[in-house]
Amino acid sequence: MMYPYMTLNDNTEITHSEMKTDGRVKVYIETPDEKVCFRHATCWLPEYKWEDVYAYSDVDIEKFQEIIESTAHLIMEFSQEGGFDNASNL
What we know:
Elements: E1 2-7, E2 13-17, E3 25-33, E4 37-45, E5 49-54, H1 58-81, H2 83-87
Antiparallel strand pairs: 1-2, 2-3, 3-4, 4-5
């Protein structure tokens, strides 16, 4: 299951999985794109391992890395609570 986490000004969506049994969390990023349909990438926490990067530049990934690093503690917490909506009792 993937949970919504954040939408950036350019309509980039950041979602995350539940915490896996090995303690890892999948963070998935996708941006609508007229030419390629969607640009996307996956980052695994807590090791910040990037994979399946499609149509993002190195600068884009650096920006996403900063966002994820600055909020990883929240993503890890929400991944154990059923996403933001469950963690915030909304």
